[in-house]
Automatic annotation (TrEMBL):
Pfam families documented for this protein: Response_reg
Organism ancestry: Bacteria, Pseudomonadati, Thermodesulfobacteriota, Desulfomonilia, Desulfomonilales
InterPro entries: CheY-like_superfamily, Sig_transdc_resp-reg_receiver
Listed name of the protein: Response regulatory domain-containing protein
Positions of the Response regulatory domain: 22-106
GO biological process: phosphorelay signal transduction system
Superkingdom: Bacteria
Amino acid sequence: MNTTIGNSGLRALVAVNERVSKLTETLSKRGISATVVTDAEEALDECLMNPPHLAIVGSSLGKMTGIHFLAELLKISWKTSTILVSDEEEEALHQKTEGLGILGAIREVNDVEGLERLLDKFFEIVSANQPPASPGK
């Protein structure tokens, strides 16, 4: 399944095996269009064709774990910011994802508060990487 929601300049890939309406609604409210996929290979192909600014990844995508997916995504698009959906304890998750550069994790796809917090961090990164405005514009 591949569904695109929203229509802004910032793009997110949502690769999870759950209902994601609250998640995509939150992204849309923040001006981020979302492409929803449920298969790891399809998600990686999507990233090759059109690297997203942000990827939100479930703990399991068919035969591939979310952490393995993040490692593969990093090879394709090291600039993509990532959020993992995982109910693992923070310390254990930190050890497993060290070196993958994730923004953080939310416990479930409906954790709007946690997602908002990580989106704030994402927008800080995006704005820090914007070139300065030209004088007089």
